[in-house]
Amino acid sequence: MNNFIEIIKKRRSVYNLNRNLPVFQDKIVDLVRDSVHLVPDAFDMKSQRVMVLLGGQHEKFWDAVYDELVKYTGESFSRKRIDSFAAGAGTILYFYDVAAVEETRRAYPMYVEHFHDWVMQSNGMLQFTIWTGLAAMDVGANLQHYNPVIDKMVRDMFDLPDVWTLVAQMPFGGIGRMPAPKIPEDINIRVKIEK
Ligand SMILES: Cc1cc2nc3c(=O)[nH]c(=O)nc-3n(C[C@H](O)[C@H](O)[C@H](O)COP(=O)(O)O)c2cc1C
Q1: What is the DSSP letter of 181?
Q2: Which of helix, strand or coil describes residue 115?
Q3: Is residue 20 assigned to a domain?
């Protein structure tokens, strides 16, 4: 159990990323495949989808994100933040499949209004599992949300089906610098124990 919490402690939002991965890329791909298989989903509906961008595809993606933001805002601005993500070794894109959800939702009309929450909860579990798995391998990552502005660009760039809905983007790479330690808190304000 101690080891479990120690690994969770290693997961942070690392914004200073570089290309020097401490593990082979295959290890990251294996982590993603295993996590997608193992992370739970409501009614086991297997709604989650993930894309791993490596090397040139990762760089092309962040260039295109910048272009979309410029188009959206109508003005050019500093690329510093986008470049900090592109400086990593890759990016994991998280999606859910609307078709997979609809099929199950139709089968359970009683729970119709819960499905979106459940899909997002499962996607969050997947994000956390992969983020923490990366941290366990000393790979840094952070979590970004340029959707929905970039949704169409992503679908077009990677020829994805319309039913793939983008949820989050996770650039990862070697750790240039870790963030400051978490500030201690009185956890009893947020956790209640009843005996
Ligand atoms: C659901 C969710 C959405 C987040 N969205 C963003 C985001 O869009 N951009 C960003 O830089 N960080 C984002 N974060 C990271 C949080 O700001 C970060 O996890 C939090 O400040 C705690 O820091 P830590 O990750 O180092 O523990 C998000 C985190 C979560 C869980």
Answers
A1: P
A2: helix
A3: yes
- Is the pTM of the predicted complex or chain greater than 0.85? yes
Cα(106) to centroid(ligand 1), Å: 33
- pLDDT tens, 12-58? 999 999 999 999 999 999 999 999 999 999 999 999 999 999 999 99
Is 48 domain-assigned? Answer: yes
Structural domain that includes position 176: 2-189
120: in domain:
yes
46: amino acid identity, one letter: K
Task: Specify the CATH number for the domain of residue 78.
Answer: 3.40.109.10
Q: Which tens digit of pLDDT belongs to each residue from 59-88?
A: 999 999 999 999 999 988 889 999 999 999
Closest-CA residue, ligand 1 atom 7, reads: 144
Which of 123, 155, 116 lies closest to 49 in space, CA to CA? 123
